[in-house]
Design a protein that fits this description.
Layout (H helix, E strand, L loop, with lengths): L8 E2 L2 H23 L4 E7 L3 H16 L3 E7 L5 H13 L5 E4 L9 H5 L13 H9 L7 H14 L6 E5 L6 H10 L3 E5 L6 H6 L3 E4 L17 E4 L3 E4 L3 H5 L3 E4 L4 H5 L4 E2 L7 H19 L10
Parallel strand pairs: 1-11, 2-3, 2-4, 5-6, 5-7, 7-8, 8-11
Antiparallel strand pairs: 9-10
Helix pairs in contact: 1-11, 6-7, 6-11
The site of the ligand Nc1nc2c(c(=O)[nH]1)N[C@@H](CN(C=O)c1ccc(C(=O)N[C@@H](CCC(=O)O)C(=O)O)cc1)CN2 has 17 residues, from strand 4, helix 6 and helix 11.
Pfam families: THF_DHG_CYH, THF_DHG_CYH_C
Pathway: One-carbon metabolism; tetrahydrofolate interconversion
Family: Belongs to the tetrahydrofolate dehydrogenase/cyclohydrolase family.
Length: about 300
Amino acid sequence: MAENDARARIIDGKAFAAGLVERVTAASASLKTDHGVIPGLAVVIVGEDPASQIYVRNKGERTREAGMRSDTHRLPETTTQAELLALIADLNADDGIHGILVQLPLPAGIDSTVVLDAIDPDKDVDGFHVVNAGRLAVGLPGMVPCTPLGSVMLLKDALGDLSGLNAVIVGRSNIVGKPMAQLLLAQNCTVTIAHSRSHDLPAICREADILVAAVGRPEMIKGDWIKPGATIIDVGINRVPSADPVKAAEGKTRVVGDVAFAQAAAVAGAITPVPGGVGPMTIACLLANTYVAACRANSVTPVSLDA
Ligand SMILES: Nc1nc2c(c(=O)[nH]1)N[C@@H](CN(C=O)c1ccc(C(=O)N[C@@H](CCC(=O)O)C(=O)O)cc1)CN2
């Protein structure tokens, strides 16, 4: 089979995310009608990072389209940590705001751990607060990080029951790798977290029924690292020069994942594309978390957002 003869099923994260957003929109409308509550999300961005500006604009648009309140706080690059913490304190105290998100990365000089841990854990719709990491680890209800949450939704939709499957996660970040491991453990998978220092990474990956790539290295995971029929979740979003040398010389770029897609798709059973796989689930899950936070703040039982 030629390298680009894809035979894996393509997991359409864009379509799944659109369905989830529809369900969140309907649930939020009922929350307003039945309880007079409009979910409110505050997004804080510091500095001018161009990619972050786009993500934040998209979050604002999606939030308003879902019928929620959206406040965006754009702070200059020169903002001090104390000023940012003061804004977070105000948002923590604002009863109309149920979700607070500080866009990452933050400028050098601001300690993101201190900032994220200043957010009220019940408003921490990113699920990055240490209290939410702890809740996830011990199986208590909390806020679950959006990218891992969306990835598990895609896996359950693709495979049904995940019990007993071997899951290998490549990447040990606090915002993807570690919470992904907790979520897959909760689904009764046998979980391995591998990383750049793991010995014989290809051999570890070849054991995976479910392979989650979250390393941030363009196309690092090759086709011969993949067990035939495995399900691949590619969390990577890497901007690289265009494949067309003329366009590349003009500075044009394209987005690729952490997995060499064509090679992997020739071996895997199912795979998320980049773009259009896990990425769209991140914002859809952010809206879902904001809806759930608004329900909890008003002692309302959230409706199921399952498909
Ligand atoms: N506070 C947070 N900061 C950041 C997060 C986060 O979840 N919380 N994640 C990323 C950025 N991000 C959202 O903020 C994000 C990135 C990418 C996508 C997405 O849908 N990507 C598209 C491709 C986009 C492209 O072509 O450039 C896709 O995969 O289809 C959504 C959200 C870092 N910061």
